[in-house]
């Protein structure tokens, strides 16, 4: 049987992969996908804890699942707005390469 | 009204009056004068009431600074024999001077502020008299200095007056610094600031003798400043820049006597201290007495002659504190001196006003037939000052010189010599101002002063004569009943006659200018010039040092340094703004990592 | 059984996530991301979170990834051209990564509860949709309303941001 620790480890690794995407890839959209991976890692963690924290009635702790619900909703809203920004940026600069967007420096 | 309140009314009524005049009556001359005179009269009345009924309250206190177990500094009043007598003296003379001022200051443009300052002074002086602890006395000591500064600088448009006020305050400050150190030393040793407490605890505490000597001499520094003893006497002659009533009240009768009063207050401490303290005090007083007398013989300003005379007489009082077994001996001379010196100053004021603010004696002359009342009062005052038998000064001065004779032969001859000088310069003043022919048109047309000025003169003249008689003085003082050695009487009588003869010889024939010219005395031993040079040098040096420090270290290092450091840090940190999104993400990630590490594992 | 399921699904999810990061072509990355989300939904189901698993598929794989692909097609992105390698950036990124993995491993190791199996659930399990619904509408009503407002605001924001000229 997988334990809580296994799930948490998997969640951590997923988060790391997302982080790698954010730090190492140059395409804005891939970076964005990395962000999504990180959010999902958090969701996995939460669901694992929900299952772990069984209440007196023998039911999982649904509060954590409600939080996952919220996170998914917020992530969806964030993706919408983020992609709108990327589109606007593309229209202006004709690039989605992150190293080309360096106007805001000293 | 509850007699317990009298001391508080006496103390605070003048303050209230000063506030009243300043706030409500700044442009009403007569009303301000009225308020001032009424207040002074009230304090005088209550003081006499207290004096004549000795069973009234002795001490009362308002706790002020009170840290239990550490220290307690109250605001308190003490009504023992010493303070009762001083109250009577201060308030009576103050009332007379306030009334006289109404006549003297007629036409002046600053009468309300003059009376307000006088009321403030009265408040401060009464605070010194009534104080029952050192700290309170020190506070009022400083307040008296402030009032003196204000009053000396009354004619503030005159540079010399403004400078004189500053000099008075600053020189006093020098003395007060030593005074404060002395107070703190005594406080430290005895644990109490109350005079009674200090006396009590002093016997219980064993001190290194040097400590007590230092403390007493430092406290004496206060007297050096306030009572214009050498070397801090330089401010008193210059304080004559103030109006004459001010000179008579502050710088003759009361404020300068505060130094002597303070010594009288702590007389038991002086007695408990090693002999050398009183020796030092005696010599300072004696030297001051004699040197001031020398300087007075060559002064040409009528008020300055009297100023140096005051310094000389204060020297006598200081000697009296040092040589006598009780403080009443010096207080007796303070008492008589207050009356006759005030009288002399007011006479001088009368002359000055009659001659349209002329103060040079070589422009006066022949005033005896023109101002007979003033002349009479001046003669009475002079006879009292020189110690002519039958006048008050005779009794008090002879007593001091007698004790000086018992203490040290050298000091006896010095004080006797000073008596000779006193007689000489006072009769010089009389002969030059009142005798012979007038030396200027103003002097020719002088007229006797109005009644508002002459009535106080006459009253003071009566006091100058009578205040010394044993039947009067026994109510005020408990003087020791000893026989005064005949040599003392002889020496002082000889001094009196000798001075009179010399003065008559030189001046009775009414010369136009002074036949004797001794630059050393006329220039006051060049002490003023020395102080000028000292202050200029010292201050100049300090100014250069401060200016360098301010320009290079404060401006250069601290201010500019701080600015440059901030700019440099900003410049360095600017390089973090790379514009590269992933760089920011990297910093973010690293920061989060560090945070998590420190939260979880530490 | 559950064990095998867990391992298979985990490997699938992590593998496709890695593929997202490694592919050059954004469309490939997007498809792998969809696969990753599906695997994750399956993992949710193994954790008895059925409602959440379905929501994951519906919202993430169904809506969010569709939006992603839409944008990729709109912008007509080609495969990313190779640019010269920035050693410093690479090094930094890998360092942070390594640090983070180390941290996670340490934390999980130090958690004693992590080694225990999951506590059993009672047999009469009600529908977890109802349970989540109950919790959502009673305890978390305010955040729920706020989320509604958030969605409204983001919709308005998106409309404004996609205008030709931001006037």
Mean pLDDT value of chain A: 90
Report the count of strand segments of chain A. Answer: 0
Strand order of the largest sheet of chain B: 1-2
* Intertermini distance of chain B: 77 Å
Task: List the chains of the largest interface with their residue counts.
Answer: A-C, 73 and 89 residues
Mean pLDDT of chain B comes to 87
Stretches with pLDDT under 50, minimum 5 residues of chain A: none
Shape, per Cα inertia axes of chain A: elongated
Quaternary status:
heterotrimer
Give the uncertain stretches of chain B in residue-range form: none
Q: How many DSSP helices of chain B? A: 25
Specify the helix fraction band of chain B.
Answer: over 70%
Shape descriptor of chain B: globular
The portion of residues forming beta strands of chain B comes to under 5%
Main sheet summary of chain A: none
* Rg of chain B (CA only): 29 Å
Classification by helices and strands of chain B: mainly alpha
**Share of residues in helices of chain A:** over 70%
The beta-strand count of chain B equals 2
**Alpha-beta classification of chain A:** mainly alpha
How would you describe this protein?
The complex is a heterotrimer of chains A (106), B (602) and C (167). Chain A is an all-alpha fold. Helices cover 74% and strands 0% of the residues of chain A. In chain A, helix 1 (4-24) packs antiparallel against helix 2 (28-52) and helix 2 runs antiparallel to helix 3 (62-93). The longest helix of chain A is centred in the last third of the chain and has 32 residues, at 62-93. Chain B is 74% helix and 3% strand. In chain B, a hairpin with a 3-residue loop joins strand 1 (59-67) and strand 2 (71-78). Chain B starts with 5 loop residues before the first helix and ends with a helix. Chain C is 74% helix and 0% strand. Chain C contains six helices and no strands. Chain C starts with a helix and ends in a 6-residue tail after the last helix. The interface between B and C is small, with 10 and 9 residues.
Compact summary:
The complex is a heterotrimer of chains A (106), B (602) and C (167). Chain B is mainly alpha-helical.
Question: How does the SSE layout of this entry go?
Answer:
The complex is a heterotrimer of chains A (106), B (602) and C (167).
Chain A: H1 4-24, H2 28-52, H3 62-93
Chain B: H1 6-24, H2 29-52, E1 59-67, E2 71-78, H3 81-104, H4 111-130, H5 134-152, H6 159-190, H7 195-204, H8 209-226, H9 235-238, H10 244-253, H11 257-265, H12 267-272, H13 275-296, H14 302-323, H15 328-354, H16 372-386, H17 392-407, H18 409-434, H19 441-444, H20 451-466, H21 470-476, H22 486-507, H23 519-522, H24 527-574, H25 581-601
Antiparallel strand pairs in B: 1-2
Helix pairs in contact in B: 1-2, 1-4, 2-3, 2-4, 3-4, 3-10, 3-15, 3-20, 4-5, 5-6, 6-7, 6-8, 8-11, 8-13, 10-15, 11-14, 11-15, 13-14, 13-18, 14-15, 14-17, 14-18, 15-16, 15-17, 15-20, 16-18, 16-20, 17-18, 18-22
Chain C: H1 2-22, H2 26-46, H3 50-75, H4 87-110, H5 128-138, H6 141-161
Helix pairs in contact in C: 1-2, 2-3
């Amino acid at each position: 049987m997988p334990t809580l620790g296994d799930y948490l480890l998997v969640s951590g690794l997923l988060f790391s992969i997302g982080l790698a995407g954010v730090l190492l890839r140059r395409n804005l959209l891939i970076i964005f996908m990395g962000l999504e991976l990180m959010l999902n890692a958090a969701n996995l963690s939460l669901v694992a804890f929900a299952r772990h924290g069984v209440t007196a009635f023998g039911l999982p702790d649904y509060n954590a699942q409600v939080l996952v619900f919220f996170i998914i909703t917020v992530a969806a809203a964030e993706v919408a707005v983020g992609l709108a920004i990327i589109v606007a940026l593309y229209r202006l600069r004709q690039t989605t390469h992150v190293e080309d967007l360096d106007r805001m420096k000293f | 009204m509850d007699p317990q309140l009298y001391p508080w009314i006496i103390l605070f009524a003048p303050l209230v009056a000063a506030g009243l005049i300043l706030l409500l009556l700044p442009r009403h001359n007569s009303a301000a004068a009225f308020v001032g005179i009424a207040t002074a009269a009230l304090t005088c009345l209550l003081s006499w009431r207290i004096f004549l009924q000795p069973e009234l309250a002795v001490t009362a206190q308002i706790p002020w600074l009170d840290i239990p177990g550490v220290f307690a500094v109250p605001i308190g009043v003490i009504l023992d024999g010493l303070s009762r007598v001083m109250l009577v003296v201060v308030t009576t003379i103050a009332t007379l001077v306030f009334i006289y001022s109404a006549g003297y200051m007629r036409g002046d443009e600053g009468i309300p502020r003059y009376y307000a300052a006088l009321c403030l002074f009265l408040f401060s002086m009464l605070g010194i008299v009534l104080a029952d602890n050192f700290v309170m006395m020190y506070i009022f000591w400083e307040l008296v200095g402030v009032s003196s500064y204000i009053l000396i600088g009354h004619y503030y448009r005159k540079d010399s007056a403004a400078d004189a006020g500053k000099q008075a305050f600053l020189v006093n400050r020098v003395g007060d610094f030593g005074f404060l150190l002395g107070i703190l030393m005594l406080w430290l040793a005895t644990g109490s600031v109350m005079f009674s407490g200090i006396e009590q605890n002093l016997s219980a505490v064993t001190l290194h003798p040097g400590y007590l000597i230092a403390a007493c001499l430092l406290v004496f520094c206060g007297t050096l400043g306030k009572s214009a003893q050498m070397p801090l006497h330089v401010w008193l002659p210059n304080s004559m820049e103030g109006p004459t009533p001010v000179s008579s009240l502050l710088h003759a009768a009361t404020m300068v006597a505060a130094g002597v009063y303070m010594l009288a207050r702590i007389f038991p401490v002086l007695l408990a201290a090693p002999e050398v303290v009183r020796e030092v005090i005696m010599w300072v007083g004696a030297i001051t007495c004699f040197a001031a007398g020398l300087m007075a013989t060559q002064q040409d300003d009528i008020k300055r002659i009297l100023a140096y005379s005051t310094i000389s007489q204060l020297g006598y009082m200081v000697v009296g504190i040092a040589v006598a077994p009780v403080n009443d001996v010096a207080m007796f001379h303070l008492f008589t001196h207050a009356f006759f010196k005030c009288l002399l100053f007011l006479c001088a004021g009368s002359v000055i006003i009659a001659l349209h603010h002329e103060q040079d004696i070589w422009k006066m002359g022949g005033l005896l037939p023109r101002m007979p009342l003033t002349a009479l009062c001046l003669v009475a005052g002079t006879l009292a000052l020189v110690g002519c038998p039958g006048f008050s000064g005779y009794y008090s001065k002879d007593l001091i010189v007698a004790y000086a004779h018992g203490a040290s032969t050298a000091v006896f001859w010095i004080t006797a010599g000073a008596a000779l000088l006193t007689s000489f310069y006072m009769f010089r003043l009389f002969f030059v101002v009142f005798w012979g022919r007038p030396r200027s048109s103003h002097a020719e047309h002088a007229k006797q002063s109005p009644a508002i000025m002459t009535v106080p003169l006459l009253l003071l003249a009566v006091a100058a004569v009578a205040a010394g008689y044993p039947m009067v003085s026994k109510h005020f003082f408990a003087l020791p009943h000893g026989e005064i050695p005949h040599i003392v009487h002889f020496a002082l009588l000889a001094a009196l006659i000798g001075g009179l003869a010399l003065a008559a010889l030189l001046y009775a024939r009414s010369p136009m200018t002074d036949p004797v010219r001794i630059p050393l005395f006329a220039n006051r031993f060049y002490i003023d010039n020395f102080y000028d040079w000292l202050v200029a040098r010292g201050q100049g040096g300090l100014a250069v040092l401060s200016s360098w420090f301010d320009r290079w270290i404060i401006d250069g290092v601290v201010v500019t340094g701080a600015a440059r450091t901030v700019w440099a840090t900003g410049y360095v940190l600017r390089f973090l703004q790379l514009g590269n999104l992933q760089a920011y993400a990297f910093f973010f990630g690293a920061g989060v990592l560090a945070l998590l590490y420190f939260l979880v594992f530490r | 059984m559950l064990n095998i399921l867990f391992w298979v699904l985990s490997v699938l999810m992590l593998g496709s996530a890695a593929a997202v990061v490694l592919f050059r072509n954004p469309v490939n990355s997007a498809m792998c991301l969809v696969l990753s989300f599906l695997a994750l939904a399956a993992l949710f189901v193994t954790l008895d979170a059925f409602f959440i698993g379905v929501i994951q598929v519906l919202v993430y794989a169904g809506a969010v990834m569709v939006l992603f692909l839409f944008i990729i097609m709109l912008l007509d992105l080609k495969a990313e051209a190779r640019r010269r390698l920035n050693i410093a950036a690479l090094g930094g990124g890998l360092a942070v990564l390594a640090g983070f993995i180390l941290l996670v491993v340490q934390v999980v190791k130090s958690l004693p509860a992590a080694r225990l199996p999951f506590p059993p659930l009672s047999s009469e399990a009600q529908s977890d949709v109802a349970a989540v619904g109950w919790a959502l509408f009673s305890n978390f009503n305010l955040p729920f309303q706020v989320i509604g407002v958030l969605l409204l605001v983001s919709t308005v924001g998106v409309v404004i941001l996609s205008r030709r000229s931001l006037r």
